[in-house]
Amino acid sequence: MSLEESTPDTVETAVTTAEEIEDLLGDLVLDRDDHLNAPGFVVRPDEVQDTLFRLRDEAGFDHLSCVTAQEYEDRYESIYHLKKYDDPTDEVSVVVPTPTDDPVSESAEPVYRTADWHEREAYDLVGIEYDDHPDLRRILLPETWQGHPLSRDYDQDRPQVVPLREHANPLQEDHEGEGDTMFLNIGPHHPATHGVLHLKTVLDGEQVVDVESDIGYLHRCEEQICQQGTYRYQIMPYPDRWDYISAGLLNEWAYARVAEDLADIEVPEYAQVIRTMGAELCRIAAHMLAVGTFALDVYGDFTAIFMYAVRDREKVQNILEELTGQRLMFNYFRLGGVVWDLPEPREDFFEMIRDFLDDLPEALEEYHDMISANEILQVRTVDTGVLPPEVAKSYGATGPVARGSGVDYDLRRDDPYGYYDELDWDVAVEDGCDNYSRLLVRLREVEESAKIIEQCVDLLEDWPEDDRTIQSNVPRTIRPDDDAEIYRAVEGAKGELGIYVRADGTEKPARFKIRSPCFSNLQTLPEMSNGEYIPDLIASLGSLDIVLGEVDR
């Protein structure tokens, strides 16, 4: 059965309340769990698929946003964070406990394809095993790794022995007998892989038969580092390093949102406007780099397109440096607001932004002339890397990858935060479902970000001086209630960037889980590439706009 056949086109019943969900699940529910943003339902480990099928097919929860795994003293837990693409504020958490001596649970992969990688990560780092998983093996660490780094009894001093298999045949048995196939390593040190990504590619002639993304080369234990830091002071410097290229303030906002909701911290309106302006500047910088590197991947234009994009990105970086004091690792957000006000003299700062916005329409017209209207690029990208909308949803794709497949999903509008719901702007959606559509979405989003920034500047220029509160009164030490659990997300440059936090009554989180949009988006690569040619594979990978620091975390 194909994915399109197994995914319902319509949902007869729209279930929204916790009571309706409990009635729908019936005797599948063992207990209720308190999550701050979504009702939680505890189910047996052998009834995961029945539960998720009901929630997807009968209640409309078609988006498996995140899978969190953790270990307690008396049990393991897998938590499936479900949303609706039509309404991401309608959320539910499915909690699956397993005993410590037998941490085995049913896999959610037959219901949501995105569970494939998420459950592999849970197995790799925590040690939970998933029955019926199509390919349960490590994903970030080598197969020879001893132990699970996020388990309670992990011995970090245990030596790791990695055997040298110099005579191993990379063509496994499942590829034998396919005819004249060839195994090709792409990466992990190759400019077209956008970082340290290894693509294990099987070719039949020049057509891709199979491609597997081998990740983990840039795994930096960000979740573990955050679990060792205090909520108020020590975690915020780290989000800049997830998507380290351009999305620093967007990453910071993801942590700020979850921590502020967890600790019930209000953010002053003035600080919300500054946050919104800064976030959209980061989005433009990210998209400029994405467009420039995509053109470089597709038809090798370095001197014009790539350098043009870097030129305009540098203008944004100059503005952000004036605002934050840094060009890449901004560390500008604080819980409850921002660290300092706009630079003085304010008039010069506003003029700097307006000069950039005034030049942007002409620059975008040049990009359309040289990129989207380029015949070579059109031949390489139109009708290649096709990702149908239902396939995109099943893989949990978000951001320009989903919107390029006609999925009208944007958390800035659909789950409002900051100052977005007070401003006039549109969500950029294209229904071509191909590499070309994802390019167009990013170019259109630059225009929409410019609209948002201009409105923010207008507001900030006229803001009364006596009402410029940049940060609310935040307790020196933040200690959320024991066992408080929450998952919140923002619209990053690449898509839904979410964080799950479980508190234990101390000033440090007991569990800190990062939901990277790049991690879920990269899973779609085989769907886009199998049956196509090598150059199409490179174009499809470039259209995903991944950053391996965020994929691996």
Automatic annotation (TrEMBL):
<protein>
    <submittedName>
        <fullName>NADH-quinone oxidoreductase subunit C</fullName>
    </submittedName>
</protein>
<dbReference type="Pfam" id="PF00346">
    <property type="entry name" value="Complex1_49kDa"/>
</dbReference>
<comment type="similarity">
    <text>In the C-terminal section; belongs to the complex I 49 kDa subunit family.</text>
</comment>
<dbReference type="InterPro" id="IPR001135">
    <property type="entry name" value="NADH_Q_OxRdtase_suD"/>
</dbReference>
<comment type="subunit">
    <text>NDH-1 is composed of 13 different subunits. Subunits NuoB, CD, E, F, and G constitute the peripheral sector of the complex.</text>
</comment>
<keyword id="KW-1003">Cell membrane</keyword>
<dbReference type="Pfam" id="PF00329">
    <property type="entry name" value="Complex1_30kDa"/>
</dbReference>
<keyword id="KW-0520">NAD</keyword>
<dbReference type="InterPro" id="IPR001268">
    <property type="entry name" value="NADH_UbQ_OxRdtase_30kDa_su"/>
</dbReference>
<keyword id="KW-0511">Multifunctional enzyme</keyword>
<keyword id="KW-0813">Transport</keyword>
<keyword id="KW-0472">Membrane</keyword>
<dbReference type="GO" id="GO:0005886">
    <property type="term" value="C:plasma membrane"/>
</dbReference>
<feature type="domain" description="NADH:ubiquinone oxidoreductase 30kDa subunit">
    <location>
        <begin position="42"/>
        <end position="158"/>
    </location>
</feature>
<dbReference type="GO" id="GO:0016651">
    <property type="term" value="F:oxidoreductase activity, acting on NAD(P)H"/>
</dbReference>
<feature type="domain" description="NADH-quinone oxidoreductase subunit D">
    <location>
        <begin position="303"/>
        <end position="553"/>
    </location>
</feature>
<dbReference type="InterPro" id="IPR029014">
    <property type="entry name" value="NiFe-Hase_large"/>
</dbReference>
<dbReference type="GO" id="GO:0051287">
    <property type="term" value="F:NAD binding"/>
</dbReference>
<dbReference type="InterPro" id="IPR020396">
    <property type="entry name" value="NADH_UbQ_OxRdtase_CS"/>
</dbReference>
<dbReference type="GO" id="GO:0008137">
    <property type="term" value="F:NADH dehydrogenase (ubiquinone) activity"/>
</dbReference>
<dbReference type="InterPro" id="IPR037232">
    <property type="entry name" value="NADH_quin_OxRdtase_su_C/D-like"/>
</dbReference>
<dbReference type="InterPro" id="IPR022885">
    <property type="entry name" value="NDH1_su_D/H"/>
</dbReference>
<dbReference type="GO" id="GO:0048038">
    <property type="term" value="F:quinone binding"/>
</dbReference>
